[in-house]
Amino acid sequence: MSAVQLALFAAPPLRGWPRLQAFLVDRIKRAALRQLHASRAGELLLLRIYLIGEEATEQTLQQEMLANPPAWLERQVQQHLREEQEHSALFAAAMRERGMQPPSELRPDRLSQAKIRRWQRIARRHAPHFQQGLLVPAYAIGLCAEQMAERVLSRHCAVLPAEHPLQGLLGRVLSDERKHVRLCMRTLGLSVAEHEQPRLQQLLAEARAVDRAWGVSGAVGMYLAGVALRLRAGGWRRSN
Ligand SMILES: [Fe+2]
Ligand SMILES: [Fe+2]
After folding, report:
1. Which of 3, 37, 44, 124 has the most CB atoms around its CB within 10 Å?
2. Record's superkingdom (predicted)?
3. What one-character DSSP code corresponds to residue 11?
4. Which value, to the nearest 10 degrees, does the dihedral of the CA atoms of residues 76, 81, 87, 93 take?
5. Cα–ligand 1 centroid distance for 49 (angstroms)
6. Is the pTM of this model over 0.85?
7. pLDDT digits (tens, 9 = 90+) for 153-183
8. All domains of the chain, ordered by start, with CATH?
9. Distance (Å, whole) CA 12 – CA 7
């Protein structure tokens, strides 16, 4: 992938309020992670959030990308799906190791559901403007979701001590999500005609704005949940 294409698809540098917002979200989420890791219930909540995210990605792949993929993409989509299923299995196993059976049906929280609905509306609105139809918005939104996963997991790995038992799992998923970011970029580069680029940039900007909405309140909610679970556990500290 050329440097020009990379620059087209990388998240652009933020300015003004969005930049301050991203800074605040990062700081609050770092503090939230420390709180959540201070109790077993908090750690389980984090694993559950990741599991829900992975299952939502699987569903999107199955419903929107696997539903009718062009022949040249079929193998790639199948491989992508296998890797997301592996991630779900790894998070579910980590929950079991910590004494919790993952619920058979997991639904994203209301905030995430609202985000997914807004992403779907954006995809439907832009799809008719691309030769490849819904495939382009599906991969553009997929790119934003994979970039978000990369950001979230990088932060988590940076906050945890190097010897923490979850480092291996998070590091492995992170390296796959980085691969998925490149895969979405490559697929967009192959499916979008030159004259469709401005429309793609508009679509990416809208999808990223949805990702940023509720950022601070979501981070504060995560922090408060971490504090509440730590207090309820009476300062439980992990001993392994
Ligand atoms: Fe994943
Ligand atoms: Fe992924």
Report:
1. 37
2. Bacteria
3. P
4. -140
5. 12
6. yes
7. 999 999 999 999 999 999 999 999 999 999 9
8. 20-232 (1.20.910.10)
9. 8
